[in-house]
């Protein structure tokens, strides 16, 4: 199994976590900007994004699709979704909220545009990430255990922790305002699957 990944990509961070949680062996293929823009990578992955998973005949982009694939293809490994249908829906809702409504606000691709327009992108991102965290805090409050949903790591945690890592390390968000999110983050990051997947633990990390 190969994962096309980059340290700075929070989306790649999600899949590195999931592979660690499920204890699956994998090989990292490091994708820099030049490779990502090259024809060879586009032939393999027409979206030309990271992460991209290659597992035998399976060639999959987009993190939620990759997470669902890993859950179904490796059902004997530790699960990323709970057994109850309503619990699975809640986990997916949290994951989707992070993927669709929080991560795009942190996308570094916005920075060049904002600079051209004379917008303070750092302050803009701080404002909107904080705003979305207010909603996420309320989502996490019911049924909260050690993690986003109860006391087992789920797909929601795989998606949440990279964005909190960015919020803390790149955007100086005061996490004391979000005690539920902060508690989940602190519990997760103690686990090897999360700590080892962090950007600063990757060979291509540049700070």
Automatic annotation (TrEMBL):
Residues 84-207 form the GST C-terminal domain. CDD domains: GST_C_Zeta. It comes from the Eukaryota. Gene3D superfamilies: 1.20.1050.10, Glutaredoxin. InterPro entries: Glutathione-S-Trfase_C-like (IPR010987), Glutathione-S-Trfase_C_sf (IPR036282), Glutathione_S-Trfase (IPR040079), Glutathione_S-Trfase_N (IPR004045), GST_Zeta (IPR005955), GST_Zeta_C (IPR034330), Thioredoxin-like_sf (IPR036249). Residues 1-78 form the GST N-terminal domain. PANTHER family: MALEYLACETOACETATE ISOMERASE. Belongs to the GST superfamily. Zeta family. This is G12008 protein. It comes from Coccomyxa viridis. The gene is g12008.
């Amino acid at each position: 199994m190969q994962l096309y990944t980059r340290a700075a990509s929070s989306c790649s961070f999600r899949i590195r976590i999931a592979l660690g949680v499920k204890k699956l062996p994998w090989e990292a293929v490091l994708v820099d900007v030049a490779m990502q823009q090259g024809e060879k990578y586009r032939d393999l992955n027409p979206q030309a994004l990271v992460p991209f998973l290659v597992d035998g005949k399976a060639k999959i982009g987009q993190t939620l699709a990759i997470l669902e694939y890993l859950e179904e293809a490796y059902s004997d490994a530790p699960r990323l979704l709970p057994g109850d249908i309503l619990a699975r829906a809640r986990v997916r809702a949290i994951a989707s909220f992070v993927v669709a409504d929080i991560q795009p606000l942190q996308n570094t691709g916005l920075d060049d545009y904002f600079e051209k327009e004379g917008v303070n992108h750092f302050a803009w991102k701080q404002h909107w990430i904080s705003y979305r965290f207010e909603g996420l805090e309320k989502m996490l409050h019911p049924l909260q255990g050690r993690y986003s949903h109860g006391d087992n790591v789920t797909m929601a945690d795989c998606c949440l922790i990279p964005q909190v890592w960015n919020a803390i390390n790149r955007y100086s968000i005061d996490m004391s305002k979000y005690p539920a999110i902060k508690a989940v983050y602190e519990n997760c990051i103690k686990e090897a699957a999360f700590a080892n997947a962090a950007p600063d633990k990757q060979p291509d990390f540049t700070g």
